[in-house]
Amino acid sequence: MVAVMVIDWTDFPNPPRGMRSLDITEVRRVYDYELPPLVIYAGVAEDETGRVIPVVAILEEGTNVAKLYLFEEKDRVKEKELIASFA
Fold it and tell me: CA–CA separation, 24 vs 43, rounded Å?
């Protein structure tokens, strides 16, 4: 999957401008001595037109600033097909 757009999200956890809602389904914490503590959120966002978009947000723990990566809708279908092919 390739991100279509990256947003500097400065009001985390409130949905960024242009997003109607944000549904986080998975959270992972990353601890690496070379990096600040990171939290990775994955889920879907609904834009103002009602389109559902797969998203990943990466947040430096203890801040309210994140990078929000938006993906193509078709990438979500490809991901499900790929997972099914391994079963």
Answer: 4
